[in-house]
Amino acid sequence: MSSTSQAMLNQGLFEDQDMPSQMGFYTSPPNWTFPPLASENLSTMVTKHQDVTSLLGEFEAASVERSSNNIWPWGEVNQYVGSKRCLGDDQLGVAAMKMKKVKARRKVREPRFCFKTLSDVDVLDDGYKWRKYGQKVVKNTLHPRSYYRCTQDNCRVKKRVERLAEDPRMVITTYEGRHVHSPSHDMEGSEGSSHLNNFFW
DNA sequence: CGCCTTTGACCAGCGC
DNA sequence: GCGCTGGTCAAAGGCG
């Protein structure tokens, strides 16, 4: 069975260090069941979703301040997702304002991309191979957060996976960094690769 | 046997 | 300065 087939809805928050304007809220179209990881695809996503321009504006405002300080609101993004502010216009604005107050927690600026997915399984099959390196019960959440690292050599991409406390059906996945290689699932050349390719792009 | 998950310990950032 | 919290490490065990 394919875990990806469980995914039905994606909504989330993204940001990209190379493109300061690329930070905002997105809702995936019906035919998108998984978010892109490369910056160019993020750009495409924004273009396709002008209907969320007002929401995006809130985050761009926060992004400007962040850029001027050359600081990434590292922890705030996670808190934003964990507290389920991915949904709701008013809450989104509040979250954006809150981000302005956050202090620098980390100087390493890896592009991050987080989203929520309605799924029965915790770990969605995104075509890459991951190794779990930690699990932590975070405050105010019922479900533990899992930490994964890409198994590919020289690829430092990490991802965090957790479930929403109020709606355990929703899986929050946060990617950090960019893959320096192609997805590894198609190495077998089996039928599985075809459906996965169709799933992603 | 190699790769993976589990899990407790450790560390660093942040708020008070 | 201290305690809390999130993120990472690494040893141990499991599984194919």
Automatic annotation (TrEMBL):
Entry keyword Transcription: yes
GO molecular function annotations of the record: DNA-binding transcription factor activity; sequence-specific DNA binding
Pfam families: WRKY
Primary location recorded for the protein, binned into one broad class: nucleus
Chain spans, region Disordered: 180-201
Keywords: DNA-binding, Nucleus, Transcription, Transcription regulation
Polar residues bias spans: 191-201
Protein's recorded name: WRKY domain-containing protein
GO CC annotation: nucleus
WRKY domain ranges (all copies): 119-184
Location(s) in or outside the cell: Nucleus
